[in-house]
Write a structure and sequence with these properties.
This protein has 427 residues and is of the alpha+beta class. It has three domains: 106 residues, 2-Layer Sandwich (Beta-Lactamase); 90 residues; 148 residues, 2-Layer Sandwich (Heat Shock Protein 90), CATH 3.30.565.10. Helix content is 49%, strand content 21%. The protein has ten helices and 14 strands. Strands 4-3-7-6-5 form a five-stranded antiparallel sheet, sandwiched between helices. Strands 9-11-12-14-13 form a five-stranded mixed sheet. A hairpin with a 5-residue loop joins strand 13 and strand 14. It is elongated and about 150 Å long.
């Protein structure tokens, strides 16, 4: 058993350690100041001499190893991202030979990685695209640009699929193209939905055209017997009205009023059909001039009313002048109709920003309407007020909406009961 060291021995050991530490600190200071060219180090294999140049090379080598490890880690991360991508990724050489694909490619096309590598992407050709498309693609990427497009390709089992792809060239340090990277996304489901929507839209448009043609035909055919009934009612009243008892006269008056209302409805339907059937004659239109013409025609018919008109700056637009005039006539006639109870009528015609959108508008200080009913406002034969108080067929605003829609715009309204209404539209 080893004897415990005495106090004197421990003090001596401590002093020896301090001496060695002092020598080490002096050597480090000399190295930092460049006063030492080499250091002798005791190793299990014996004493070895290391120069400062050896140390610098070792430090440089360690730094290079660290940088390489970091680069390898970065490459590993990027490869993991490519491998796990939901989109198919293909890398080819400059000649178009496939050198790498990810798992999403094999899932999309049915070709395994081993089957795909060494092949040309033309193995996926469906035969549905002409040579011009492929020439455009190659001209683009060989010029060093990125190509975007859609194609119909064929899987290994023969099934066709739609894919949206981006192909980008990869250049070497000297600027020469060495590889191409293609990122492909299967859009078959989206294309099927778009095709189905297009077919459905075409069917609805066709059905709507047939319905409008039927409506036009029926309305046109109804006018003759209605005009005849009105004429006979007028003749009956002129020839025999005085001979009829009061109840008979009242019934005859009801017949005449109802026939006249029916004629107005039929004429409204015909006007509505014409707005859909007439060919648009779009041109540059002075909107302010169109609005003033409509206003002048309407105000001439009501010279006794006090009407205050505020006309703002109305920019020119591309529209059919006759149909745009009909829009203003219908909107302004509505404004005049529903301000009938006002002592002073105030109508503003303008253009400006509405909820981030530029729109034309017609504003009045009339009776307004319930804003909860605004969705039904532009339907055919929709009326929100008593027919005995406010005449009309309920077709005018439907005609306005149809004209605006045919111009590619939209129309909407804001109102409060007894606080007026504002109609906005875009073209």
């Amino acid at each position: 058993m080893r004897k415990p060291r005495t106090r004197e021995q421990l003090i001596a050991d401590n002093n020896e350690l301090r001496r060695r530490l002092g020598e080490a600190e002096a050597v480090l200071a000399a190295i930092r100041q460049g006063q030492v060219d080499a250091v002798m180090v005791s190793t299990p294999a014996g004493a070895q001499v290391f120069t400062l140049q050896d140390a610098a090379r070792a430090e440089e080598l360690a730094e290079r190893i660290a940088q390489r490890e970091q680069a390898e880690e970065q490459i590993h991360l990027q490869l993991t991202a490519l491998e796990s991508s939901a989109n198919a990724i293909v890398i080819t050489d400059r000649a178009g030979t496939i050198v790498w694909v990810n798992p999403a490619f094999t899932q999309l096309t049915g070709y395994s990685r081993e089957e795909a590598i060494g092949q040309n992407p033309r193995v996926l050709k469906s035969g549905q695209h002409g040579a011009a498309l492929y020439k455009e693609l190659w001209d683009c990427i060989l010029a060093g640009k990125v190509w975007h497009g859609e194609m119909v390709n064929r899987r290994k089992d023969g099934a066709l699929y739609y894919e949206e792809m981006v192909i980008a060239p990869v250049k070497q340090k000297k600027g020469e193209i060495a590889h191409f990277v293609a990122i492909k996304q299967d859009v078959s489901q989206r294309k099927r939905a778009e095709d189905q929507l297009a077919r459905r839209t075409h069917e609805l448009e066709k059905a709507n055209q047939e319905l409008e043609a039927f409506s036009y035909s029926v309305s046109h055919d109804l006018r003759t017997p209605l005009y005849s009934a009105a004429q006979f009612a007028r003749l009956l009243n002129e020839e025999y009205g005085a001979l009829l008892p009061p109840d008979g006269q009242r019934c005859l008056a009801l017949v005449n009023d109802n026939v006249c209302s029916m004629i107005e409805l039929v004429n409204g339907l015909l006007d509505f059909s014409r707005t859909s059937r007439a060919e648009l004659q779009k041109q540059s239109v002075a909107t302010a001039q169109i609005a003033q013409q409509a206003l002048h025609e309407l105000c001439q018919a009501k010279p006794e009313r006090k009407i205050e008109i505020v006309m703002g700056n109305l920019p020119e637009c591309q529209a059919d002048p006759l149909l745009l005039k009909q829009v203003y006539i219908n909107l302004l006639s509505n404004a005049l109709k529903f301000t009938r109870s006002r002592e002073i009528v105030r109508i503003e015609i303008g253009y400006g920003a509405v909820a981030g959108e530029q729109a034309y508008f017609v504003k009045d200080n009339g009776v307004g309407f319930d804003p909860e009913c605004s969705d039904k406002l532009f339907g055919v034969f929709q009326r929100f007020h008593d027919e005995e108080e406010y005449e009309g067929t309920g077709v005018g605003l439907a005609i306005v909406r149809r004209i605006i829609q045919r111009h590619g715009g939209r129309i909407w309204a804001h109102a409060q009961v007894d606080h007026g209404a504002t109609f906005y539209f875009t073209l």
